[in-house]
Amino acid sequence: MLRLTGDPGEKVFLNQVIERSGQNLLECLQCGKCTGGCPVASKEVFGPRRLIASILAGCKDEALGDPTWLYCVSCGTCATRCPVEINVYRVATVLCEIAEREKVVPPEPGIHLFEKLFLKSVQRHGRASELKVVMGYNLRTMNPFSDMSQGIKLMRKGIISPMDLLRGGKKDETASRIFTRVDQVENERVEK
Amino acid sequence: MRVGYYPGCSLEKTGKPYDLSARAVCRGLDVELCEVPGWICCGSSPALKMSRLLSLSLAAKNLLLAEKDGIEDVVVPCPFCFRRLLSAQQEIRDDRPAGIRAEQVIEARMRGDVRVRSLLDFMHGAVGLRSIEERIRKPLSGLKAVSFYGCYIVKPSQVIRPDNPEDPTSMDEVLSALGAEVLDWDFKTECCGASLSISKKEKVLELSGRIVKEALFRGADAIVVACQLCQSNLDIRQGEIWKREGRKEGIPVLYFTQLMGLSFGLPASELGLKGLIVDPIPLLRQKGLAP
């Protein structure tokens, strides 16, 4: 059972999540419809209801250590069914941003690595190259032959080409400019 | 009719059959698709998870490119791109502090008046069932289909505002218009596991496994989708799913655009049917829909 201790830090974290996500967690009824419909909730992944309870109780470490927000696929089922319309994927983004800024080790490093590699590909080329992201991920997780048979099937069907891997891919200035500007605008915001 | 088209990254790679069939069907309906010039990735689920500003800005940039090109309606086949563009437009309008930051990033102001539509909604709502029916050369009679919408095209209801987020009917109506027998089922908007396919394959095998098993249990010949991510999870992962069950089965997972194309009598080669892993050709032959 989570209990508030009266530490002022508890409120800082709660307010930060509410303000940045635009989701009024104080209205949460803890009814559990979100977790009931959540596709990723399981014995190990506790689901939105408990994640919100942790945030409401100001338990920052517990919230950041809950794999729910990394597993979240933003399906939107929780928001659709929530009686007070809380959208948990908006909360997941805020937790990810806080964890990133404070260098908290992600509770699910695999998911986090995949997402980072994907964005790197977008930053460099403007469009994501699925094949390269998957290969990069498999190499880094020491699993180079994972999904090899699926890859070969797709190549036989002419859907992906081995040339995609060999080709360097065009550099794209539009996307990389956006990544640079995001850092600049975020830094200006922190300085203010 | 002339509309903007934002295919998204996947449709250039694993989702190629979706892109091919969407373009072929639009040609058949005299809809001219004008690709948004110089479009970039919408950031997909990784940007949505990792940085709100990045996610908003990538979507904003694409909307801006469409605005500058004079596009009034942008049609988006990928449900994730569709929802991201639509949601970003709403967020930039309704949450001005965040909207201003996104505009600072892209170094331009948005008009915010491009109408973002999913391809499914465009076919159902703008082209309309009557125009679709007029093009039919080969009705899909005898084909038992279940329609699978997935998540992003209907949820969350606050962003998409669908008629019914739990029991949508637009694809059912399109397929019925094509002459298919559309079966009722409870899995229309279940989650296939989406982007966890590589990093948490187990989860995808579990979620997609439930969907394909239910479709067979209902007696469907095929699962029909409007999303390349659903398609790839339900199709590519089937081999592993059935292997675990010790069964040798398979159910084709087709795009609704491929079925539209078949019923319009378009050649199979234009519809990317060979790009699917569970081969739909034997089924289509059996129903007299493919040579």
Computed CA radius of gyration of chain B, to the nearest angstrom: 19 Å
Work out the strand percent of chain A: under 5%
Instruction: Give the total of beta strands of chain B.
Output: 8
Distance between the termini of chain B: 32 Å
- Helix run count of chain B: 14
> What are the low-pLDDT stretches of chain A, counting only 5+ consecutive residues below 50?
none
What is the chains' assembly state? heterodimer
List the total number of helices of chain A.
12
Separation of termini of chain A? 38 Å
What average pLDDT do the residues of chain B reach? Answer: 97
What class would the helix/strand composition of chain B place it in? alpha/beta
Note down, in words, how this protein is organized.
The complex is a heterodimer of chains A (192) and B (291). Chain A has 192 residues and is mainly α. Chain A is built from twelve helices and no strands. In chain A, α1 packs across α7. Chain B is of the alpha/beta class. In chain B, 48% of the residues lie in helices and 10% in strands. In chain B, strands 2-1-3-4 form a four-stranded parallel beta sheet. In chain B, strands 6-5-7-8 form a four-stranded parallel beta sheet, with helices on both faces. Chain B is globular. The two termini of chain B are 32 Å apart. The mean pLDDT of chain B is 97. Chains A and B meet through α6, α7, α8, α9 and α10 of A and α2, α3, α5, α8 and α10 of B.
